[in-house]
Amino acid sequence: MNKRKTIIDVAKECGLSQATVARVLNGQQDIQVKEKTRKRVMSAAQKIGYRRNTLAANFRLQQSNTIAISIPDITNPFFPELIKGIQEKMRDEGYSVIQLNNEWNPSIEKDHFQYMVQTCVDGAIISPSHSGTDFSTLEGVPFVLLTNSDLYSEYDSVGNNSKAGMRIALEHLYSLGHRKIALLVGGSMRSDPSWRYDIFSEFYREKGLTVPANFLVSCDYNVDSTLSFLQARKSMEIFLSENPMPTAFFASNDILGLAALQVANEHGIKVPDQLSIIGMDGIFSGEVSYPALSTVKKNRSEIGGISAQILLDKIKKPKDWSTKKVLLPCKLIERGSTGPV
Amino acid sequence: MNKRKTIIDVAKECGLSQATVARVLNGQQDIQVKEKTRKRVMSAAQKIGYRRNTLAANFRLQQSNTIAISIPDITNPFFPELIKGIQEKMRDEGYSVIQLNNEWNPSIEKDHFQYMVQTCVDGAIISPSHSGTDFSTLEGVPFVLLTNSDLYSEYDSVGNNSKAGMRIALEHLYSLGHRKIALLVGGSMRSDPSWRYDIFSEFYREKGLTVPANFLVSCDYNVDSTLSFLQARKSMEIFLSENPMPTAFFASNDILGLAALQVANEHGIKVPDQLSIIGMDGIFSGEVSYPALSTVKKNRSEIGGISAQILLDKIKKPKDWSTKKVLLPCKLIERGSTGPV
DNA sequence: CAAATCAATGATAACGTTATCAATTAATCA
DNA sequence: TGATTAATTGATAACGTTATCATTGATTTG
Q: Which of A21, A2, A3 is closest to A11 using CA atoms?
């Protein structure tokens, strides 16, 4: 077992000093080396099979070239695209990406923050597990939040404009003639869903209508997508048995919307002829349902890319940083689950 | 800006040597230190706010405590659970996980292998992008493959027994009385789908039946889940317009199965009364379709956990390693899309 | 109680890179 | 040409940890 080659070996091989060899071989190109010596070094390195020891370089530079993504759960269909968007951007810039799931558990999340500090990540992109997440553990690590909440006014953040998005959905239903719209919302640890009622009643007021009675189906939005779906199904069943049918449902995310759709189908309610349903997010499952689910799409890969860019900027010039907050628009995707009354 | 504390600072603070401080503070507990000095060190470390420099330790030990996962595409619904399974196991053992997507592109995959060597990952778990993937770039890096193909006999691998899984699905349909079963398969870069025909005809022979004419719907299984779905839809449309209806479809994965289901729904074909459909994999979308898709589930989080365990074993004792090949059973999940003829 | 053994601690050398400054060589200009 | 400046290259010191061996202190044993 022959030992791994170092720049010293290369130096010996080509008869130059360790320093010049290093100059040729280390990343930065902004150094003066003669073309001839550069070639001498390169061929010698090639010949003896030199490979840069990244661990040594990282140590010397005290940077890991790694950024961390902290999210609740990768199996939640909302996140993979987001992560892909981050990864693509980061790879282009030469960073590796470590992805950590906290299972919506604040204590695991805190461990992860500690881990990031320990392991010297250069930065982090964080989707907070709950509204009270404490970022003080992260001292020294630049980070960007994935949120549209105004709870985190002091931090950099990227998110979708969900309020506007909800209005887009309601407007869509309204334009199809729907006046009796019901709301299907899930309470979560992350944010109080009460703003949805505000938007809803505001919308009705603007249209000169009165908010219908029993317009609300609420359910626990759970850790696990499957469980959320089942919860939503249950709430839908109860609602349908106790209330007169609305003409449309707005679901605060696609999983809830799909639950409503499945229950409606099972009850022989024709979607969209008797009932329109629109969701929010734009996950894959909404494309393959029957009928395909209309939705207000959040461009998750764009969120990922932008948050990555902001983090990179912050890493590169941490001085005089002014907090950036980005809210991206949502986009209506009309599919088969919505139609005229 | 005060500099970060080192073990030397701690040593000064508590009046002990650097070496003893290191003994107390470094991970391994199997070293002899008096309880009293241990406390002295700990409180001194606490007091001055010492934090271990992981980068330095990694360099010294020449190990990154990082393993890499190489997969085609995280947005493919097959992978997130798999990754979660790996992550959980690896976190327990103190490893971080870097996840790389190659977009089914062999050249990106190769870059990723090179990157792994460069960056000194301790090991890798790889879902090959295509059947001809070349692992020679990875010299020195222990790795485990995620595959059930026998193309890779020389490597460690973990996968599901898809052949047995397909038989389970066919058996299920058969037991419901189906005799005219059609096959919906997607060709991919990873493996030749011809073994599916073999299993199919073998099954029919065993049952003393003759393989029905025009039993095959084939389509391109694409890089992108959405595209695959649309491809499969198209193939289904064509098949239905040109052939007599079978009583059941076996789809080689859930995405194809969902396409068949959606098209059937659109054509007013009652599933499962007029047509049964069964898929394979057990992705989330199959739970939320209407009717919910029966499937043969691959326990992806288990595959992840087991592959992680094998990799860990291999990292710990690379000597006298005998290649391990694990094939996990698939499990029938009966849902609404299959029923008696 | 001295000798031998064992446990605990100390001194110090790596690990391979980058960065600083000194030394050399090449290029420019009067 | 000789002096001055600019462009290359060389020598060497870090970075903070772990590991090796030497040393000291504590404990046992004949």
A: A21
Q: Which CATH superfamily is domain B7-61 in?
A: lambda repressor-like DNA-binding domains (1.10.260.40)
Asked if pLDDT for residue A76 goes beyond 80, the answer is yes
Strand intervals (E) in chain A: 66-71, 96-101, 123-126, 143-146, 157-160, 181-187, 216-220, 248-251, 276-281, 294-297, 325-328, 331-333
Contact state of B289 with A81 under an 8 Å Cβ cutoff: no
Contact predicate A172/A338, CB 8 Å: yes
CB-CB contact of A312 with A267 (8 Å): no
Whether the link from the prior residue into A318 is cis, omega within 30° of 0, is no
For residue A135, what are the β-bridge partners?
none
Superfamily designation of domain A66-160+301-329: Response regulator (3.40.50.2300)
Band the pLDDT of A226: cuts 50, 70, 90: very high
Give residue A220's pLDDT.
81
For B260-310, write each residue's pLDDT tens digit. Answer: 999 999 999 999 999 999 999 999 999 999 999 999 999 999 999 999 999
3-state secondary structure of A4: coil
Q: Which residue is nearest to nucleotide C8 (CA to C1')?
A: B33
| Structure-model confidence comparison of residues A51 and B168, the more confident one | B168
Is-contact A124 A141, C-beta < 8 A? yes
Give the list of residues 6+ apart from residue B77 with CB closer than 8 angstroms, or none.
A77, A284, B225, B254, B255, B281, B283, B284, B285
Residue type for position A53? N
On whether any CB of chain B is under 8 Å from the CB of A54, the answer is yes
Task: Starting at the earlier edge strand, list the strands of the sheet with B123-126.
Answer: A325-328, A157-160, A143-146, A123-126, A66-71, A96-101, B96-101, B66-71, B123-126, B143-146, B157-160, B325-328
A12 at B interface, C-beta within 8 A = no
Per CB-CB distance under 8 Å, the chain A contacts of B262 are: 288-290, 292
Domain boundaries in chain B? 7-61, 66-159+300-327, 162-298
- Give pLDDT, residue B88: 93
pLDDT band at residue B191 using 50, 70 and 90 as cut-offs: confident
Which element (helix H / strand E) includes B148? none
A22 — contact with chain B (CB < 8 Å)?
no
CA distance A267 to A233: 12
Q: Measuring CA to CA, how many Å separate A44 from each of A2, A37, A315, B118?
A: 17, 10, 35, 18
Domain B66-159+300-327 belongs in CATH node 3.40.50.2300? yes
User: Nearest 5 degrees, angle CA B255-CA B261-CA B263?
Assistant: 105
Query: Nearest CA to CA, how far is A89 from chain B (Å)?
Result: 12
CATH number (1.20.1250.20, 2.40.110.10, 3.40.50.2300, 3.40.250.10) of A162-297 reads 3.40.50.2300
Banded model confidence at residue A31, pLDDT cuts 50, 70, 90:
low
**Rounded distance, CA B49 to CA B46, Å?**
5
**Mean pLDDT computed over B115-137:** 92
**CATH code 3.40.50.11810 for B162-298:** no
CATH topology of domain A7-60: 434 Repressor (Amino-terminal Domain) (1.10.260)
- The whole-number pLDDT of residue B28 equals 63
Say which DSSP state A123 is in.
E
